[in-house]
Amino acid sequence: MPQYTPPLRDMQFVLHEVLDVTKELKILPAHAELDTDTINAVLEEGGKFAAEVIFPLNQGGDQEGCSLDPANHEVRAPGGFKEAYERYVAGGWPALSCDPEYGGQGLPHVVNQCFYEMLNSSNQAWTMYPGLSHGAYECLHAHGTAEQKRLYLPKLTSGEWTGTMCLTEPHCGTDLGMLRTKAEPQADGTYHITGQKIFISAGEHDLAENIIHLVLARLPDAPQGSKGISLFVVPKFLVRPDGSLGSRNRIYCGGLEHKMGIHGNATAQLVLDGAVGTLVGEPHKGLAAMFVMMNAARLGVGTQSLGLTEVAYQNAVAYARERLQSRALSGPKAADKPADPIIVHPDVRKMLLTARAYAEAGRALTIWTALQIDKEIHSPDEAVRRDCADLVALVTPIVKAFLTDNGWIAISHCLQVYGGHGYIREWGMEQYLRDARINMIYEGTNTIQSLDLLGRKVLGDAGARLKKFGKLVQSFVGRRSANAGIPRAPRRPGREGHQAHL
Amino acid sequence: MPQYTPPLRDMQFVLHEVLDVTKELKILPAHAELDTDTINAVLEEGGKFAAEVIFPLNQGGDQEGCSLDPANHEVRAPGGFKEAYERYVAGGWPALSCDPEYGGQGLPHVVNQCFYEMLNSSNQAWTMYPGLSHGAYECLHAHGTAEQKRLYLPKLTSGEWTGTMCLTEPHCGTDLGMLRTKAEPQADGTYHITGQKIFISAGEHDLAENIIHLVLARLPDAPQGSKGISLFVVPKFLVRPDGSLGSRNRIYCGGLEHKMGIHGNATAQLVLDGAVGTLVGEPHKGLAAMFVMMNAARLGVGTQSLGLTEVAYQNAVAYARERLQSRALSGPKAADKPADPIIVHPDVRKMLLTARAYAEAGRALTIWTALQIDKEIHSPDEAVRRDCADLVALVTPIVKAFLTDNGWIAISHCLQVYGGHGYIREWGMEQYLRDARINMIYEGTNTIQSLDLLGRKVLGDAGARLKKFGKLVQSFVGRRSANAGIPRAPRRPGREGHQAHL
User: Fold this and answer.
1) Nearest CA to CA, how far is A325 from chain B (Å)?
2) Residue B74 known to be catalytic
3) Which residues of A are catalytic?
4) Where are the domains of chain B?
5) What CATH topology corresponds to A289-479?
6) Between B124-143 and B81-90, two packed helices, what is the crossing angle to 10 degrees?
7) Which of A39, A53, A330, A430 has its CA 20 to 30 A from that of B175?
8) CA B347: distance to chain centroid?
9) B412 touches A: beta carbon within 8 Å
């Protein structure tokens, strides 16, 4: 059975010693009152929730999976998931970084980022239910009409309702320009939406009383390709003007996917059969609106692999300290025992340190990114807001691809540390590896991220964003050059003729 | 549902056009009569068996797994496995490269190597049952007493009985010097063996009427560590002098492991409770004797990942030719269709070509290695036998580690080609990846292979084996230097001061 200890000290190190977030946040009127103790106390409680409530459900959720009752299209999440979600809602966790206008607690994204790392270390499949809700919240917050905000945001903030993003169809995933789901305008201003969606995470379940689907579809007069896609809110149960639940909408789960991992999350095929929806944002501009959710989700996916890397590392290093096998090459290190703990062996150390490096660097990168998001949203200085938005746009595909590609390598290393035991279900490592594999695929495959990085983010503005990032690095190096602990690397002999890389 | 086509033409290319095996084998008296048509015909039939009999059982075997009846310690393999094994035996396949003295067909290892690649492409979990039997056959053939050979080899050759290797115990895998299983000598010359073994592949099942376990254990007077380990034959049912089955031996399956993959193979915990065994080889020299089996198994494990890489590649390339998504960067390639097949995209091509390179190079390396084994066994020239033994020893850890590490990367690429569909069970790719993960661990983790390569094989004889291999490479380069198709790479400008690598 794997264990998990929330890495609070490591988070505090990045938050307070590396980034000094309290000082940075003080400049933002929305967060001016926030102090270090509050941040630490919230994370301590959040860590308890993660480690004590949802971590114990992770292996059972993997083995049990979700089940669909074809008679009524209802899906049951694994045992304990619903009760844990009720505690999550009761504890006010969904509201952590939501807008106070809709009932949110208004805490900064840096806090939510650390919280989500711990949730994902504890149970990626479970965390996808609130994670997608939060993405739907952000999309509606940015692009919803006043009425949509009034109807949906308070319930998404409280967690009483959850959300999804419905993009993929059987014949199109990456190439959304090919999507066929149709939206027909009705006299009352709503739309009737018909089509089939697949791979919808948290697409149907029993955790919450309503599910708010954000659905991409085409209007009758839509141009071909990705410029003819519109975004709609399609709730599972229609919502009356007073906010109470109305009749069941015509969006049904037609099947659940059998997957390599994340068995505890219901990956649904959804059939829309004239389901009632309302338009979000402008007609034919749905993809741009959905990208608010997608960018949040991409950072979220990077955080999923960060969480898995951390928990896999914690367990592998504990195993390596206890498992006795062979002697150190440099002579016995535990002479009183029949063999040395395997942590003495260089290759075991290399694998563990690789995982640790990815976890620690990944944590630093994601918290730094979250801080840029807080500044992008709340800085009183427009130039700062623009710079931060640029930096977030630049690093989003990096957070997604770098953390998931390297998380995959790191978790595979951690499994390898266990030898044959790593391949056995009860130890938990093979689940982490299976769960982690999806992160390189969904929310845009990692190659799509590289196209986004190079095509849009670097070449799209002739390197302007990249230069902003370069200046940050240059400034950091300048400030640290006097630090004796970071000596300038000596030039290697024989390479004088080459461009120095440092 | 994945598909599989035996790569007969690719095998023939390596066998006949690259290695000219018929000419090489003609020098060996045991294979002087063998011609190209016979080799090709055997492989064509072998490919049919693999693709038509065991490939269709692969996904079902993964989903069903093996089951243990705790009441009688009997294990049932997944549906169809037993019937397929009966056809395997009826077809004479176990005997392919076995010694005619014990009923074998005496075909060379190069043929068996190609056959096993196809079996592993079709169903790794199933193939482990006959694969381990063949390892037990080789170990007893090399180190068994005349009586052991008489009793066991004909039935292992025919496939009526299967075999296992019992090394690992709960507290030791890599460090076999720590093993505790005890063997007490009896007045009748047998031993009573008591202990617990874990991770025993094909350790208990219903495919054959008897299972011949090769068990490492300690004699009462055994020195500490790996120099005090002896090897024993411990049959599931004792064998009477006339070869008929006697009473049930006291070796029982105490549990089956729940694993990431190879669900169709029964990975057993075996309890020995005074089980009757006979000594193989010299007392305290069991590890050396077991290494005959282990070396065969290491080449076998490399072949497992080769097989999985090939079948994953075949399916990924077929999918990439059919799946339409986005346009080629250089302009539409299938203008009559709504999008281009994804094989036009550079990253998809890179992933596919990586997998293909590992499959083709892995095939060439394994067949070349098998040819060296044939020459090691059958060459009339002692110096050739010694040189070939050296080369096989040198490349064994490379075949094991290089093919399994890179197979893992390649199969993950092939899964990625499918996008989200790669994560879905029905497409089959995620099973190939799960099955492949064990190959980097068992029969000595890949780091153990690197220690074997560097410590024993390269430094152990001060580089003598490595120089033999280097001469082969040098000779190849010399013979090919006039080939206009293999031009000498031009020196890169600016690197004149460095040692040229080519």
Assistant:
1) 5
2) no
3) 443
4) 289-479
5) Butyryl-CoA Dehydrogenase, subunit A; domain 3 (1.20.140)
6) 50
7) A430
8) 31
9) yes
